[in-house]
Design a protein that fits this description.
Layout lengths: L1 H20 L40 E6 L33 E4 L4 E4 L2 E6 L5 E6 L13 H14 L6 H7 E8 L2 E6 L6 H6 E2 L11 H4 L23 E6 L4 E5 L4 H4 L10 E6 L4 H9 L5 E3 L2 H10 L3 E2 L10 E2 L4 E5 L9 H9 L3 H8 L15 H8 L2 H6 L7 H10 L3 E2 L5 E2 L7 E5 L5 H13 L3 E5 L4 H6 L5 E5 L8 H5 L22 H11 L6 H18 L2 E5 L2 E2 L1 E4 L3 E2 L22 H7 L1 E2 L4
Parallel strand pairs: 1-11, 2-8, 18-19
Antiparallel strand pairs: 2-3, 4-5, 5-7, 6-7, 9-10, 10-11, 12-23, 13-23, 14-22, 15-20, 15-21, 16-17, 24-25
Helix pairs in contact: 1-7, 2-3, 7-8, 9-13, 10-14, 17-18
Length: 611
């Protein structure tokens, strides 16, 4: 009862912030959890002035995003830049910026945006980028090669002092201006993936935004908040202007002089305001916010998405109102075991654990069957499946998804373990294989099933969900952790690069070697693949096979299954979401509201006209 009370308090708090930002009363009551969905009246456009001096914008002209992480407040509200102050894109910063290009996983096509074209020289040591001459900053200053040169060279010079700096420093020799709309980037060596890596926006990996030189020059990139709305910050090229930011909500209003409209690249976005609110991530809160039409999009999880769509017929998902209630994300899941912690440095132990996991059971119990096993550290996208097919014989020998307790026993025994009288694996000294599984909110149901499986199959397994679990994991302060691979989308190079021998300061964001596994021969193959153009399947697949001949026996992490994005999308106020049954624009981009492609959602959504 006490737990439900605090959930209700959290729900009421969130609703009050939404209503305030929409220009309405904050006294709306949350519906009961068992009530049928009711049409929520939009706040009147003539409501009293709201906190922060925001103009009144009615609900039906406002797009409300529900941040689905565990935090109930934004800790980054005073930082609207992705390079410093412990910031990332996911909690709204991406809404301030645009990319040079956008890539869509559903049709494998790239849409050029700030850049109109790019090209490499013959040996891929130079990249030339042609910028669109129409691009303008929000303060009326032209977007030019000076901005690109300043951004690239500053990141190179700052290196590990800021996010993205280590990667830019690793691959970049010099950016120079050819003319106002042409940039030449000289690379540290042949690199046919450079534009893809840094300038093709997709998901939330290594692409970064170009910043206005006339604003950022002289600033400390590690601490500059870029959030003084009285000064028109952030100055950007996008369609939105930040007008209010606090720990409880972030608010952007539409700019009416967006360059992309004047250039004929797109129509004006239809919403007048975008709000992002932290929800705390509890499924009951997210469900009620969606069902009562308080928010327009959030990540729900498959079971929660099903419940929400049953309660409110206006709620849909990428797969409509049908299983799997979403799409396959780029983040295939593994059980990561810290290689530097014994006995997890022993591949026999890792294979013993892998054979002891019933992956389908986890999917069925924790996600109602709405997922699929994946033997590889990359998603089953079209360009990647051909690489998986090329090593079918290796996967038959090293079946990374197989549940087989007899094979598990062979591997544990090969590592020097036997079962004691209580059925636990112990070594000659009587020491158990202890697996302290650290989890996080979106994985907790699956982690509890996994923990129970490991206990039943002879391991001293335990479960915990500390509030800073993700931070601990990315800092390498874990022993066992379930998480994904933020890497490959078209071909396997980026995923394989995750397993390069770790070096201090080499990577700054989700691209480092988090397992700690190291094989110098594998590193040589990464260097060989780096020089091969990504569209050369014959040469890449030959190197890839050699890689997997090392990777599969070692099993640096334990592949489990895909990761599903189960976003609920509310069609009460906005339609034309990118769903499989969208007959107008189709699956034009993945809808994840925290990822880099969300600009294209803004340009496609249409108002329903609902009051």
């Amino acid at each position: 009862m006490k737990k439900n009370f605090f959930k209700l308090i959290a729900l009421m708090t969130v609703i009050s912030f939404i209503m305030a930002a929409c220009g309405g009363s904050a006294s709306t009551q949350a519906p009961a959890a068992t009530s049928a969905p009711a049409a929520t009246n939009a706040p009147a456009a003539t409501s009293a002035p709201t906190e922060g001096g925001l103009k009144d914008v009615p609900r039906n002209k406002t797009l409300v995003l529900g941040w689905w992480g565990e935090n109930t407040t934004f800790k980054d509200s005073e930082c609207h830049q992705p390079f410093g102050c412990n910031q990332d894109f996911q909690q709204g910063t991406h809404l301030n910026w645009e990319g040079m290009a956008y890539w869509n996983a559903f049709d494998n096509k790239t849409t050029m945006w700030q850049a109109e074209s790019y090209s490499y020289n013959a040996d891929f040591t130079e990249l030339t980028i042609k910028l669109r001459p129409e691009v303008m900053w929000s303060d009326g200053t032209p977007f030019t090669a000076d901005d690109v040169v300043y951004t690239v060279n500053t990141l190179r010079d700052l290196g590990p002092k800021v996010r993205f700096g280590p990667e830019v420093k690793q691959y970049t020799k010099e950016a120079s201006k050819v003319d106002d709309h042409t940039v030449l980037i000289t690379l540290n060596g042949p690199d046919p993936r450079y534009f893809w890596r840094f300038f093709t926006w997709r998901w939330d990996s290594t692409p970064y935004p170009i910043v206005p030189k006339h604003i950022w020059e002289g600033q400390d990139w590690a601490t500059f908040g870029n959030a003084d709305v009285s000064k028109g910050q952030p100055v950007s090229t996008g369609p939105l202007q930040l007008v209010f930011t606090s720990p409880e909500r972030k608010v952007w209003d539409r700019r009416d002089n967006w360059w992309a409209v004047k250039a004929g690249l797109t129509d004006e976005i239809k919403m007048e305001r975008v709000i992002n609110i932290p929800t705390g991530g509890q499924p009951t809160v997210l469900t009620e916010l969606m069902v009562s039409n308080q928010i327009d999009i959030t990540h729900l999880g498959a079971d929660t998405a099903r419940v929400a769509s049953e309660k409110n017929p206006k709620i849909t998902t990428h797969s409509g109102r049908n299983p799997p209630y979403g799409y396959t994300d780029w983040w295939p899941q593994s059980l990561w075991l810290k290689y530097t912690v014994k006995p997890f440095d022993n591949p026999d132990v890792r294979w013993c654990i892998s054979y002891s996991i019933d992956r389908q059971n986890i999917i069925d119990v924790a996600w109602e069957g709405n997922n699929a096993m994946n033997p590889m550290p990359y998603p089953p996208y079209a360009g990647l499946l051909q690489y998986t097919d090329s090593i079918k014989d290796l996967l038959e020998k090293y079946n990374t998804n197989e549940f087989n307790l007899d094979k598990a026993a062979e591997r544990c025994q090969a590592a020097g373990y036997t079962k004691d009288s209580s059925g636990m694996w112990v070594n000659a000294s009587g020491e158990k294989i202890t697996i302290p599984l650290m989890s996080w909110l979106q994985w907790d149901a699956g982690s509890q099933v996994l923990t129970e499986q490991l206990k039943q199959n002879g391991f001293d397994a335990s479960f915990s969900d500390p509030p800073d679990a993700w931070s601990l994991y990315t800092k390498g302060e874990y022993v066992a952790y379930p998480a994904g691979h933020a890497a490959s989308l078209q071909e396997p190079y980026d995923a394989m690069n995750l397993y390069k021998c770790p070096k201090e300061g080499q990577a700054s964001y989700q691209v480092g070697n988090l397992s700690g596994w190291c094989d110098p021969e594998f590193d040589k193959l990464i260097q060989e693949m780096q020089l091969i153009p990504p569209d050369d399947f014959e040469k890449n697949s030959a190197v890839f096979r050699k890689m997997m001949e090392l990777w599969l026996p070692a099993l640096p992490d334990l592949p489990l299954f895909n990761w599903m994005h189960n976003f609920g999308m509310n069609e009460t106020y906005w339609t034309n979401w990118p769903t499989v049954d969208n007959t107008k624009d189709g699956e034009y981009i993945n809808e994840a509201s925290q990822l880099l492609g969300f600009l294209l959602i803004l340009t496609h959504l249409e108002p329903t006209g609902a009051p």
